[in-house]
Amino acid sequence: MLPFLGPYLWAWPVLERQNPAVKSAASLSLWDKHFREGRRSLKTLAQNIEFQCESIQVSPLIRHTEDDLLSFLEPVQYLEKNSYEPVDGWLKPRNWQWDWPMDPTWAPPDTKCDMCKATPCDCISTLPKNRYRILYYGAKGRGIQARASSPGGLAFEKDQYIGELTGKLVPPDTYDNSMTINLNRSDIDEEPVVCQVYCQDQGNWVRLVNHSCKPCARLVAKIVSGKAGVMLQATQDIYDGAEVTVNYGRGHFGNNDCLCEVCKG
Ligand SMILES: [Zn+2]
Ligand SMILES: [Zn+2]
């Protein structure tokens, strides 16, 4: 998931040349507004502004409608927590013991937290803050760089939880794309997939973590502070300046070459 391989915001001037429709006053004023937000988003203190076009492969060769172009310029909605709304026809997961329909990440109050092994707790609010930067990593697009309190210092210890991937909760098998991850529940018999976390147009910085064939972190389903979620966890010590990466899994890149540092040397 989370690849940012497109030509990003900078594709806009090309799109604009090819699509006279976007020169309407409404388009230009929206563009102006988003351009200003985009400039802010490149500053480390305003990391939470991203645009739809940054996670979509926008080809300058395709003639897009004005609606499409404007949707590419919509900011991604930043989520502190997963968003859940009941959906008609969302089947109760296998071995689900509680009321249904309900938020599939809900866990009974006596469920042990995977971070502190206790209950109740507030671990979810103790995840590291301001320990990352969003950077451009060439052809890979945006990625996440670890940041420590001192240059070269230790940013994350092995096994430390770095953050939670947030997005919109949707029924299992809704999407089959790189912006979606299945969430299974280890506290339920046979560990069923209870939902997918879909982070195309809503989510947080964790969705920007790039793939590596030799990653230093992983995305893993855990229960933290009474809620199931997809956690980003360090699999080795990660130092200041290192890129935080995970393995997206086999077959992710299809016929495209992997752009990671291992494959590109
Ligand atoms: Zn805890
Ligand atoms: Zn690779």
Describe this structure in words.
The structure is a single chain. With 265 residues, the chain is of the alpha+beta class. The chain folds into two domains: 1-75, no CATH class; 83-265, SET domain (Beta-clip-like), CATH 2.170.270.10. 12% of the residues lie in helices and 23% in strands. It contains three helices and 14 strands. It has helices at residues 12-18, 25-41, 66-72; strands at 77-78, 132-136, 142-146, 154-156, 161-165, 168-170, 180-184, 193-198, 202-203, 210-211, 217-224, 227-234, 238-239, 243-246. Strands 2-3-14-10 form a four-stranded mixed β-sheet, with no helix packed on it. Strands 5-12-11 form a three-stranded antiparallel β-sheet, with no helix packed on it. The protein has a three-stranded antiparallel β-sheet with strand order 6-8-7, with no helix packed on it. A hairpin with a 2-residue loop joins strand 11 and strand 12 (227-234). The chain is globular. The model is unreliable at 1-23 (pLDDT under 50). Bound molecules: zinc ion (2 copies). The site of one zinc ion has 7 residues, from loops.
What key phrases describe this protein's structure?
single chain; 265 residues; alpha+beta; Beta-clip-like; 2 domains; four-stranded mixed β-sheet; three-stranded antiparallel β-sheet; 3 helices; 14 strands; disordered N terminus; binds zinc ion; SET domain-containing protein; SET_dom_sf; SET_dom
How does the SSE layout of this entry go?
Blueprint: H1 12-18, H2 25-41, H3 66-72, E1 77-78, E2 132-136, E3 142-146, E4 154-156, E5 161-165, E6 168-170, E7 180-184, E8 193-198, E9 202-203, E10 210-211, E11 217-224, E12 227-234, E13 238-239, E14 243-246
Parallel strand pairs: 1-9, 10-14
Antiparallel strand pairs: 2-3, 3-14, 4-13, 5-12, 6-8, 7-8, 11-12
Bound molecules: zinc ion (ZN) (2 copies).
